Amino acid sequence: xxxxxxxxxxxxxxxxxxxxxxxxxxxxxxxxxxxxxxxxxxxxxxxxxxxxxxxxxxxxxxxxxxxxxxxxxxxxxxxxxxxxxxxxxxxxxxxxxxxxxxxxxxxxxxxxxxxxxxxxxxxxxxxxxxxxxxxxxxxxxxxxxxxxxxxxxxxxxxxxxxxxxxxxxxxxxxxxxxxxxxxxxxxxxxxxxxxxxxxxxxxxxxxxxxxxxxxxxxxxxxxxxxxxxxxxxxxxxxxxxxxxxxxxxxxxxxxxxxxxxxxxxxxxxxxxxxxxxxxxxxxxxxxxxxxxxxxxxxxxxxxxxxxxxxxxxxxxxxxxxxxxxxxxxxxxxxxxxxxxxxxxxxxxxxxxxxxxxxxxxxxxxxxxxxxxxxxxxxxxxxxxxxxxxxxxxxxxxxxxxxxxxxxxxxxxxxxxxxxxxxxxxxxxxxxxxxxxxxxxxxxxxxxxxxxxxxxxxxxxxxxxxxxxxxxxxxxxxxxxxxxxxxxxxxxxxxxxxxxxxxxxxxxxxxxxxxxxxxxxxxxxxxxxxxxxxxxxxxxxxxxxxxxxxxxxxxxxxxxxxxxxxxxxxxxxxxxxxxxxxxxxxxxxxxxxxxxxxxxxxxxxxxxxxxxxxxxxxxxxxxxxxxxxxxxxxxxxxxxxxxxxxxxxxxxxxxxxxxxxxxxxxxxxxxxxxxxxxxxxxxxxxxxxxxxxxxxxxxxxxxxxxxxxxxxxxxxxxxxxxxxxxxxxxxxxxxxxxxxxxxxxxxxxxxxxxxxxxxxxxx
Length: 762
Prior knowledge:
Layout: H1 15-19, H2 26-29, E1 35-41, E2 47-53, H3 55-58, E3 63-68, H4 69-74, E4 80-81, E5 99-100, E6 105-107, E7 113-119, H5 122-129, E8 133-138, E9 160-166, H6 169-178, E10 181-189, E11 192-193, E12 201-207, E13 210-215, H7 221-231, E14 238-241, H8 257-269, E15 273-276, H9 279-285, E16 288-289, E17 292-300, E18 306-318, H10 325-335, E19 346-354, H11 368-386, H12 390-397, E20 406-407, E21 413-414, H13 419-429, H14 435-444, E22 448-457, E23 465-472, E24 478-482, H15 491-503, E25 510-513, H16 531-558, E26 564-566, E27 569-571, H17 581-590, E28 598-604, E29 612-621, E30 628-638, H18 645-665, E31 695-699, H19 717-735, H20 748-756, H21 758-761
Parallel strand pairs: 1-15, 13-14, 18-19, 24-25, 30-31
Antiparallel strand pairs: 1-7, 2-6, 2-8, 3-7, 4-5, 9-19, 10-17, 11-16, 12-13, 12-15, 17-18, 20-21, 22-29, 23-24, 23-28, 26-27, 29-30
Helix pairs in contact: 10-11, 11-19, 15-16, 16-17, 18-19
């Protein structure tokens, strides 16, 4: 590959493999002869489960075994899943409820697994599953946000999961009392189903008392620890792998009951067992995202500067605590709750509620899109109510560049930011001045046109530590072992090109090794836009060690000091030789210095970075049908220094698409009995190519001071900015017809109803 310099827009190296059918996903990697598992799932959202009769299923052709909760107990497996707990405002902890691996005593959402069939073929397992009888006494289903209703867990009276708050509420109340203006906004952040291209799946086998477990996930080490706990073995007795993964978006960042059940089944039958979720099964059981309602208040002084901000949120947690569910709309929401504004008086509260619906947890952005959506919808609504230009309203309250590093009111310290510069560039790139002309053209065509602005900031999350290992192999290739896990973002390209940039090693000789707990002792996995920042920092440290060791070796070999590495070659005083990294590796191998050919380092960042930027959307609405179309979309981001601009832009495109999908097409509907009515792609509106405009993307960078590359993560930024940009554009268009409020998602039926019966819609 030709090398033109650092930070080049290199196309994805792994795509050759993926596009020619040579990717290796879960179903491609299962051992030959593995049995197939099919789960039997609850058909009611809430009920007392008195028995699960497997007798007929066990007699069906091809069935090797069938298990319910009592069978797991007989095997000595009493493992239950529990989520992390947030602190309540009174100092207690959020509800700590156990999630069984298979339903016992009660079922709490449609799709909860109550049994598993293991058979020679999938069709045989499906046929046997039809013969399972689960005796259930129906209970009233709770699907609304309010406390109360039929108790789902005894540990959570009134179905309240937690009652969390942060900030000085009394002091903030006094600020609101003296405010010149107060604007209230209700913000509905609708539920989404993540629907990665590849559904969840796994396989398990036991050999010589050791578990080998492979699944489509976002990292292997947490699952390794959990599996060891489930089966009462040492961690060394568990080997966990992630092969190629067809999308994660946070949904695959957590363990699920099926994983432990498949491992238990494989142990019981003494053969490998595999499971792959079907699409409707995934839509019923994968962790959902968002699903909260926030009531916000903004306080302004006489000059229209924000002086206070209050948010009261109610969050649907679903039927059980998923891994970090209690933290999403609390601690993670608080990280960027004040956005890019210098607001010193903020108070947040959040009430979590159990319902008889699928669990809710992290989905692309995890708390930060929710926080920015609430704030930026509120800012736009305030501009409209107060008759102030939305651009100038934001500028008045921006954190000034000379205030950085800036300690936020509630949570964190922003590293750097030049928000006014980015906003000014965004106005130019979006041709904001030309909007009036475009609106007139739309009106002449019988359409309503709206302009939506969102200025976002987000916090990179996850483990700040990461390790890298570089091995110069005997065959002349180089292996880079990483502690993250690609879910389709292009990590193989980014990491290989970065190592090549820093060392001169030809990129085509570099192999990325990931997703294997036997090969890589620890790692932070993928999530929170952390991967490239933390992994590249570790790679830099490893390169520094390699460079020093190679320079010392050349110095000893040539009896000289002062060997330097410059422009991809070593320069030896008194010699005309300029060996490359690969040349020195070959010399070291010939001299028996294999100790120089396997180098590993671990680094920890002191702090994470804060990507920010401005999204501008324009929509057209057909008042005769209610159909909303995003017709223009412009993104001006500050990602600091870009490692690979092409892949960064691709991440933005994907994130924006998911934001547009949530805002317009993706409508999750449960009926009053807790049945999911949108459990197929015939009913659930995934965004399609013709739902999207061409995206405009530019960067206006201010390098981060929190990592040696000066970069900021980009994986989730598109979604963080898109929700409010599209929603504000829809609100702007509808305001011209006197419609005050419409909640996401902006489906055609909902928008048409608002335009034709605004009083009823309110």
